[in-house]
Amino acid sequence: MILAFVEHTGGTPTEPSLEALTLARELAADTASRLDAVVFGAEGAATADHLGTYGVETVHHADDERLDTYAPEAWAESVGQLVDTEGPEAVVAPGTDRGQEVLAHVGAKRDLPVVSNCLDVEAGETYELARQRWGGSLVEHAVLDSETKLLTAAEHEFSPSEADTVTAPTVRPFTLELDESDFRVSVDRVEESDTTGVALGEARVVVGGGRGVGGPDDYDKLETLADRLGGTVGASRAAVNEGWRPHEDQIGQTGAKISPDLYIACGISGAVQHMVGCKGADNILAINTDPEAAIMQKADYAVVGDLHEVVPELNAALGKEP
Amino acid sequence: MSSNDLPPETKTVIIGGGIVGNSLAYHLTRMGRDDIVVVDKGPLPDPGGSTGHASNFLMPVEHSKEMTHLTQRSIEQYEDMDTFTNSGGIEVARTAERVEELKRRVQSAKAWGEPAELLTPSEVEEMVPYVNTDLVKVGFYSPGAGTCDPLRAGEVMRARADEYADGGLTVSPNTEVLDLHVENGAIQAVETDRGTVSADEVVIAAGLWSPKIAEMAGVDIPLTPAVHQMVSVGPISFFEDYDGEISFPVVRDMDTQMYERQHGNDLEVGSYQHRPILWDVEDVPSIEEAPLSPTQPPLTDDAFEQSMQDALEIVPDLLDDPEAGIRHEIDGLLSQTPDGGPLLGPLQDVDGLWSCAAIWIKEAPAIGEAVAQWMTRGWSDIDLHGADVNRFYEYGTSRSFVKDRASEGFQKIYDIVHPAEQYQSAREIRTSPFYERQQDLDARFFEAAGWERPQWYESNSDLLERYEDELEDFRRPNEWDARWWSPIILAEHLHTRDHVSMIGDMGFSIFDFRGSDVVDYLERMAVGRVDVDVGKTVYTPILAANGGFVSDLTIARLGPEHYRVVTGGAAGGSDRAWFEGHIPDDADVTLIDRSESLCTLGVWGPNARDLVDSVAEEDMSHETFEPYTAQSVTIGEIDAWAMRLSYIGEQGWEIYAPMGQGQRLWDVLWEAGQDHDVRPAGMGVYGTTGRLEKGYRLFGHELELEYDPAEAGLTFHGVKDADFIGKEAYAEAIDRENTATLCTLSVDDHAPDGGERRFMLGNEPVLDDDGNVLVDDDGRRSYVTSAGTGPTVGKHLLMAYLPQSYAEEGRSLQVEYMGQQYPVTVEVVGSRPLFDPENERIRS
Amino acid sequence: MDTLACIKRVPDTGAKITLTDDDQHIDASNLGFTISPHEECAVEAAIQQAEAHEGTATVLSLGPPDAEEQLRTGLAMTADEAVLLETEGEEWRPRETATAIADAVRDDADANLGFDLLLFGDESADAGNHQVGVRVAEALDVPFVGGVSHLDVEDGTVVAKRDVTGGMEVYELDLPAAVGVKEGVNEPRYASMRAKMQARKQSIQRSDPPSSEFAGGIEKLRLEAPDTGEGDAEVLGEGVEAVQAVADLLENELEVT
């Protein structure tokens, strides 16, 4: 059995979870085994219909209301107990904060290796796999030899695809033996973000500014453009290091990974460390004075020009339209 | 202008888009060139070389006249482009020795025409309040110093070049040179990753990558990347009250070989103190691989440890600012050459290929201008001979030589360097066949162009006693004056004038010219008439088209179509390039370099004839071997060739023999010489004492591009009928009244304040009675071009160009040396020898 | 309160990463080395918390002898102590690394935990395994939270916040605890010159941890620099002349207006 760890919002699986499910189903096919999912939360059972379209046969729902709130160690212990009882060949989690964290705990608790941010997995006696290093700048090819394979799927690397045959999963609540100490870490509360804009990771349009913007004030132009397009503004690490933008705006290896419909990169050179943050974008438009800048090669569309001239004109052009 | 579509052909390709390449493009277009391509493998405006990380300050005063003038001219250009900030600069002395050095700095400033003064510690504190002046004994203030923005300057230069060229300039960044095409010894094309451009002329201005590019054409540009460590500390609250990049003078803490300079709210701390860290150019990462830039690798921490300690001592208040930290720290890569100088000019083995490398930000605009002048008209306003790329030709281009000398030279960047100081590394590269014998005689060797030449012989120390009376007034009590010097030189001189000495090897460069067009060709090169009888020798200036000196040398006619040119060893590389570059394509002239196959032994003094005659098969009498002629002779078993002339004004010969037989030649003369009281004598006699008494001019000292032959007193050839390079200017110079004339002066009093007797070494400013430096009508300042004691005339002699109104025999003037003024007298105006003015000895 | 920041020596890479000929490592022959960016923030956090709560900050690295350089960077940032678990330069996997760190931390205080707060980077820059912090915490039986973008310690409680869509999750952990921080949690200080100089003279505790053997595991075969898909951008024009084409693209083709 291949077990997928699925995160969801109100019963709807998250995009990264669907990506991980896609990888998990491939493994299930390769190993001719069943695909199951494990879900947490009060509305976990509600994922069943959706998971059926991904070919899941059994949805293991942790039946303990203490687990409705995210508690990494308790969740990991639950997955671990499921591993103990069900003996899956592999557990696949999304490469999210929670996915990585839960699987790392499982690995620690069951003394198993974990391979994070997988890009490609060939299941056999052992698993031959490719995984991200350097935030995606490099690929490591490796062999995993372990009784239970714990894997996370790199974000934005698998296109969620539904199964050829839709299943009607059984929802199987499972009970657990959990100590109070397993709950010593859990979400105490959630603070709403006080910013009104669209979060970088969620935005459909992101306007990024790099060192070429030249200073903090010049981001106004980019803000205007982002407003016009209903998007939000991001920045390269160089610009953040200059102190022009807060770190929250940083896109790249050590910042946000974005996946908008359109990313407009203004005055950004396009270093690998930046590109790994925006490769989830469906389209990239680069505006740069240097036609040789790396970003110009990696973008889908390019304008050779000074962002300080182009962006205001573009704002004006877009402003004319209703 | 900026384009990545390279034209298939162009007149000139400049490889490198840093400050040097931009300056070249600007000046070449300003001088009328309108077909130029600039390529750089990096982006613009910062292609990733040292232009992008230099500390960008310009301190104009150096001990080299040319370098000072180049920096002054560069400051003018940066100012003109609105990219210069005049902050002033202060060098501080922590030690007594450095105090003397800073006095010498003032002396050089006066000589080269740059304002400067010494400051007391409290004056230093007033100007830079953050310097810990408890450590400072004296400051040297250079009010003209400042900082520049070379990246912005590059943009301005490119824009101006684009306008001048009117569509004829292509600037192509991100273009990597893959190969240089050379055919028949001439550059044909530059192959890049964007296509191949045919070109008549290619300039390598690629900074520390220049050797790699030169190698593509099979030639050497001898430089190595070397680390200059720099850190930037900030933000410093003290600077927050001041607007702009720099509000305080740049501080050079000379004794620790460091500088501290404000840059906005940061303090840049740079060091030349650390151990030399040299790179291989192949190891310099690409732009994409480098986190900062290819020439900004990370700081080597352990090498910087002492520098941190020293910086914390000299500017503690700034560096201990609780808000401030090290924001930037690099091992900045720069180009280091074997002697620290730039590498400029045509590379002689490939026609049309030029080097413009190893240049600091402070001199780049002026060097671009000067090299552009050189390229477009054949000479530059500021003499670049000392920076000729060919000066290391055929001895000093190996990687190990470059590394050894660069390591040693790196430590001299801020050090106190005596004008006669010798390199200790990479020695014994060129030794004559006399070398072992000279070693046995306890010679003290100096090096010139790789050649080991005895400066004096310790084995002659017994002569000190013999000439005790003559030498008494000329011993040098001051250690600086006596460094790299010995009174034995003076004793050898006196012995030579009394008896006979053997001087060898002078390390000459020897070029034989053969071919049916050789007479016409050499006539065109030389001021003197060369179509003379076979066996005659001609001493002649070689001029540039402006009448300035390219060289001075001796030409001997060996046959109807065979000449031999003998020139100074140090000038060999550049002279050879000059001669080769002027052989017309269709002329039947072949240059054969004999420098490494012939050795030279001088035998001079009143006993010279008796000595040589005793071992020569031929009759060496005055009648059969006249002065200024050359003949084949057999000395003992050795078939040799001799010229009867003398740079020290004595009877005798320069005897040339095959290197392999040189030792035997020495032995034959040495054994026979025992009956004639022969002694070995060193280059101290040949190059200084003997020469100065005879008023002979030395290339690079008296003879240079800024003075013409009339001013130098070298017009004895008159104006010959045949055409020659520089003829028009030469003729004009003779007709025109001199603006200045080269004079010989003597020092009247070596201790006017009653203290230690001091002896000038050269490059001291010449002052009038009021203490003002003499300046001629062309704005040229008078300074001592050569200095040395004339033991026979009993005077310490100085040569200097004096404005016409001061060039008057018997006139009293002053010379400033180490902060003190000394009375001097004009002994001779012009080239008349002080010793034996009628040259009776040579003719005896 | 005593804090510990665990850091890793990694090459300081530029825009392009090149590999050694055998594809086993990054070609770092001409590169410098640095502390992973997240971990630099861990050091800063360790120092800040130690300063705020009157304790000491220690930096620890498992790596080759040259990792001393990164430890000295930590000391120059004013960490008090440095510990090097010296390896022979081979790559250690998360289980081995975590075991060695946990053992060292235990040893350090006679089997008691010598630190109140352990700080890790959210992931190392090079390997990116996301595990060492969790595994050390599990081995020492202390609570852990990763991906932390805001960190405070009040009255013996760690308040750690993690960015999620629309806001931040807040975790409260009792000390002793372990936290994995992300770049942005603070602004790492620049070392002063004096601190840097003093750091060069400070001693570093060294030990050679035994390399533990685990059944099963991961074996690296080779590294690969992925194809970045260059050269197919459609150039819409130069300068402001391109604006209309861009507007058309946004409005009609991509429909993002």
Automatic annotation (TrEMBL), chain A:
Q: Which UniProt keywords apply?
A: Electron transport, FAD, Flavoprotein, Transport
Q: This protein's superkingdom?
A: Archaea
| Cited SMART domains | ETF
Against InterPro entries, the record matches this protein to: DHS-like_NAD/FAD-binding_dom (IPR029035), ETF_a/b_N (IPR014730), ETF_a/FixB (IPR001308), ETF_asu_C (IPR014731), ETF_asu_C_CS (IPR018206), Rossmann-like_a/b/a_fold (IPR014729)
Q: Which GO terms describe its molecular function?
A: electron transfer activity; flavin adenine dinucleotide binding
Q: Where is the Electron transfer flavoprotein alpha/beta-subunit N-terminal domain?
A: 2-187
Q: Which GO terms describe its biological process?
A: fatty acid beta-oxidation using acyl-CoA dehydrogenase
For this protein, the record's PROSITE patterns field holds: ETF_ALPHA (PS00696)
Q: Which family does it belong to?
A: Belongs to the ETF alpha-subunit/FixB family.
* Identification of the protein by name: Electron transfer flavoprotein subunit alpha/FixB family protein
Q: What is the lineage of its organism?
A: Archaea, Methanobacteriati, Methanobacteriota, Stenosarchaea group, Halobacteria
TrEMBL record, chain B:
Its domain of life?
Archaea
**Domain Aminomethyltransferase C-terminal, chain residue ranges per copy:** 765-826
Q: In this protein, which residues make up the domain named GCVT N-terminal?
A: 434-716
**Membrane-spanning segments:** none
Q: Name one Pfam family in it.
A: GCV_T
* UniProt-listed InterPro entries: FAD-dep_OxRdtase (IPR006076), FAD/NAD-bd_sf (IPR036188), FAO_M (IPR032503), GcvT/YgfZ/DmdA (IPR028896), GcvT/YgfZ_C (IPR029043), GcvT_C (IPR013977), GCVT_N (IPR006222), TrmE/GcvT-like (IPR027266)
Matches recorded under SUPFAM superfamilies: Aminomethyltransferase beta-barrel domain (SSF101790), FAD-linked reductases, C-terminal domain (SSF54373), FAD/NAD(P)-binding domain (SSF51905), Folate-binding domain (SSF103025)
Q: Where is the FAD dependent oxidoreductase domain?
A: 12-374
Q: Tell me the ranges covered by the FAD dependent oxidoreductase central domain, including all copies.
A: 378-432
Residues in coiled coil? none
Q: Which family does it belong to?
A: Belongs to the GcvT family.
Q: What is this protein called?
A: FAD-dependent oxidoreductase
Q: Which organism is it from?
A: Haloarcula rubra
TrEMBL record, chain C:
In what residue span(s) does the Electron transfer flavoprotein alpha/beta-subunit N-terminal domain sit? 23-209
Keyword annotations for this protein? Electron transport, Transport
Task: Enumerate the Pfam families for this protein.
Answer: ETF
GO CC terms of this entry: cytosol
Transport is among the record's keywords: yes
Q: Please give the superkingdom of this protein's source.
A: Archaea
Q: Which family does it belong to?
A: Belongs to the ETF beta-subunit/FixA family.
Protein name (record): Electron transfer flavoprotein subunit beta/FixA family protein
Q: Which species is listed as the source?
A: Haloarcula rubra
